[in-house]
């Protein structure tokens, strides 16, 4: 059985996800812890529940989703996995971090690039990688088909969508990604977004003002 622990971290109120199953193997998605207290919160939960972290994943690489990346990759001795098209996004973080009150050095850990259609395995759980650009050029979502859930990053929110005014963002591309990549997954799939509350594909298809025009 897949379990999801949500940590809401940093001043951007970003959702960092810890997924693990009965085998105690787990993954961290979008590690956004921004201080020692938040680092302890996630690492203590992992230790207290005897979880072995086997993958560190990112839906995309905007600052709020990578603040804790160095910490996580160093602590668990793993590469971060994300789409190659978001490498410039990750590399740009140090140049604008000070605007938000952070001093973030260039990421020095190992990187592994993932592509659409890849399956990430941990324990008895599989996550399929779906390419869904628009909010960021290399944005992906992770789909657990058996459990009917999507770790969606900043593509689709409850009654909203990801912003497209950041470098590499494009409104039409984002809408296309939602309609052609997320909607076909199924109305009964739950979406766990990068910010805010969870939702479902079916609810957003019928009610999201950006998608019902």
UniProtKB/TrEMBL annotation:
Highest taxon of source = Bacteria
Say yes or no: keyword 4Fe-4S present.
no
Q: Spell out the molecular function terms from Gene Ontology.
A: hydrolase activity; metal ion binding
Required co-factor?
Zn(2+)
Q: Domain named Metallo-beta-lactamase: which ranges?
A: 13-195
Recorded hits in InterPro entries, A to Z, give:
MBL_Glyoxalase_II, Metallo-B-lactamas, RibonucZ/Hydroxyglut_hydro
* Sorted UniProt keywords: Hydrolase, Metal-binding, Zinc
Q: In the UniProt record, does the keyword Metal-binding occur?
A: yes
- Please report the name of this protein according to its UniProt entry: MBL fold metallo-hydrolase
Q: Which organism is it from?
A: Acidiluteibacter ferrifornacis
